[in-house]
């Protein structure tokens, strides 16, 4: 099992280019199934992207990578199912449901189980697709979906602005007959990126005032080229690495506007943050300060995916910090691992209180999930001694060349496979 060995106490300084966004590229790859030939630039090399590539190839697409560009030829799609093994490889495979249904008129996808963040219901995905005319049945752990003719545009109000459900409905509605309006839709930057990609390929998607998305169905999508937006969560993670080590870091190829809820938190911790065009600079104090309260919210609120890396930084801050997790039920698993390194954290339900200590110590810890795993690496950068972070396959899902990037910034980190 692959692991990282990290010798703490080295400042993270220097410049780093941020890769394309995992959460944007996955729905875009699902969308590519509905197009003819597409080229997706700024496509990060992540295990989740490889998993999506495997699904596309299973369905009959030809996929090729050249550097950061992935080309998908979806002119010959022969299958409309995703077998269990491929679903287990990637939790977000549910995103393919809307795309397969739109493309093939039927879809059979193994029912995704729970995940590291607690139960992961897909009721909003299912009811959204049913509103568009899909018939969905459960059959021995599989979801069997079909549609008589074309999907039909509809008005859908989401009880919660689910990112995945919004994406699945957009995908299915893009080639449906008539217009679909999603009210209370998620408005994450990754949703706009998916719409940009689909519009490049001939879709007609626009964003209404407030929180609605309007999708005018078109008969078919063509090919096109698109460059994926930068990964705002990877950016936030590297900023936390700079912050916890008292470093000075410049991130390039970013979209600072996507991180406006994260900067005030880093500033409250005593960091100086400045932005120019696509660059973010952070300069950290010798010791960080605690944060009054961080509450995770749908965009443009503070992202749940940045909660764990910020918590890692808060463990060595002067004073206490409070976290309120409103998006996922069980998103404090990293807290227990951070405590093995000496962190003082109390969690109760959706609330966590971190009492900052001067230094963490090394330990053998285990990644519990993608962002929780990255948080352990961040904590290890500032801990005494050599920390072993196990089970880093979670980290590979969302950070391209994590160890290489951190080494280029001065970290002492090695990977053992
Ligand atoms: C996406 C992101 C993930 C991020 C999350 C919230 C991708 C690939 N993943 O996940 O990194 O943490 O948004 O910003 O883009 N829910 C239901 N029923 C549903 C769907 C969701 O109850 O049908 C609940 C979930 O259990 C969760 C909450 O809604 O508590 C948010 O989920 P959602 O916005 O759907 O997140 P994902 O799309 O899974």
Briefly, what is this?
This protein is α/β, with parallel strands linked by helices and 417 residues long.
Structural classification: alpha/beta
Backbone shape = elongated
Q: Which blocks of ≥5 consecutive residues have pLDDT under 50?
A: none
Q: Give the DSSP E fraction (strand runs of 2 or more residues).
A: 25-35%
The tally of strands reads: 26
Small-molecule components bound? uridine-diphosphate-N-acetylglucosamine
- C-alpha termini separation: 6 Å
Radius of gyration: 21 Å
Percentage of residues in helical conformation:
25-40%
Strand order of the largest sheet: 23-25-1-26
| Biggest sheet layout | 4 strands, mixed
Tag the structure with descriptive keywords.
417 residues, alpha/beta, 4-stranded mixed beta sheet, 14 helices, 26 strands, 31% helix, 27% strand, elongated, binds uridine-diphosphate-N-acetylglucosamine
Mind explaining what this structure looks like?
This protein is an alpha/beta fold and 417 residues long. It has 14 helices and 26 strands. The chain has helices spanning 22-32, 47-59, 84-89, 95-104, 123-131, 163-174, 189-200, 232-244, 263-268, 307-314, 333-340, 370-381, 393-396, 402-408, and strands spanning 3-7, 13-17, 37-41, 62-66, 69-73, 81-82, 106-110, 135-139, 142-146, 155-157, 179-183, 204-207, 213-216, 224-227, 248-252, 272-276, 279-283, 294-295, 320-324, 344-348, 351-355, 360-361, 364-366, 383-384, 386-390, 412-416. The strands form seven sheets. A four-stranded mixed sheet has the order 23-25-1-26. A four-stranded mixed sheet has the order 2-15-17-16. Strands 4-5-3-14 form a four-stranded mixed sheet. Strand 12 (204-207) and strand 13 (213-216) form a beta hairpin. It starts with a strand and ends with a strand. 51% of the residues are buried. The mean pLDDT is 95. The chain binds uridine-diphosphate-N-acetylglucosamine. Residues 23, 26, 92, 120-125, 160, 162-165, 186, 190, 304-305, 327-328 line the site of uridine-diphosphate-N-acetylglucosamine. The site of uridine-diphosphate-N-acetylglucosamine has 20 residues, from helix 1, helix 5 and helix 6.
């Amino acid at each position: 099992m692959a692991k990282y060995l990290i010798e703490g106490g080295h400042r993270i300084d220097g410049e780093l280019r941020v890769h394309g966004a995992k959460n944007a590229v996955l729905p875009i790859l699902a969308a590519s199934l509905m197009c003819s030939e597409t080229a997706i630039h700024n496509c990060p090399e992540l295990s989740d992207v490889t998993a999506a590539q495997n699904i596309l190839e299973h369905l009959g697409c030809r996929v090729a990578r050249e550097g950061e560009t992935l080309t998908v030829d979806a002119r010959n799609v022969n299958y409309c199912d995703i077998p269990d093994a491929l679903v287990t490889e990637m939790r977000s495979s549910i995103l393919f449901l809307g795309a397969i249904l739109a493309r093939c008129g039927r879809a059979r996808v193994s029912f995704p189980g729970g995940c590291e963040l607690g139960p992961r219901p897909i009721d909003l995905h299912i009811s959204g697709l049913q509103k568009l005319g899909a018939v969905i049945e459960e059959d021995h752990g599989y979801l069997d979906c079909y549609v008589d003719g074309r999907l039909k545009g509809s008005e859908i109000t989401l009880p919660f602005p689910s990112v995945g459900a919004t994406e699945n409905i957009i995908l299915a509605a893009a080639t449906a007959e008539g217009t679909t309006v999603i009210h209370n839709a998620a408005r994450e930057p990754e949703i706009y990126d998916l719409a940009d990609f689909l519009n490049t390929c001939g879709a007609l998607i626009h964003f209404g005032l407030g929180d609605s998305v309007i999708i005018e169905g078109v008969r078919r999508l063509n090919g096109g080229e698109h460059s994926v937006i930068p990964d705002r969560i990877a950016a936030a993670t590297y900023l936390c690495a700079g912050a916890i080590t008292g470093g000075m870091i410049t991130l390039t190829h970013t979209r600072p506007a996507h991180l406006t809820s994260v900067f005030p938190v880093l500033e409250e911790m005593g960091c100086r943050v400045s932005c120019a065009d696509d660059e973010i600079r952070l300069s950290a104090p010798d010791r960080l300060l605690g944060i009054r309260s961080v509450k995770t919210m749908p965009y443009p609120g503070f992202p749940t995916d940045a909660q764990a890396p910020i918590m890692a930084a808060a463990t060595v801050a002067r004073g206490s910090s409070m976290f309120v997790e409103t998006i996922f039920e069980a998103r404090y698993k990293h807290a227990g691992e951070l405590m093995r390194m000496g962190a003082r954290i109390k969690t109760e339900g959706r609330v966590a209180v971190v009492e900052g200590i001067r230094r963490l110590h090394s330990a053998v810890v285990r990644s519990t999930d993608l962002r929780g795993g990255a948080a352990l690496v961040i904590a290890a950068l500032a801990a005494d001694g050599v920390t072993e972070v196990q089970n880093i396959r979670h980290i590979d899902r969302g950070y391209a060349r994590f160890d290489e990037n951190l080494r280029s910034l001065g970290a002492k980190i090695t990977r053992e496979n």
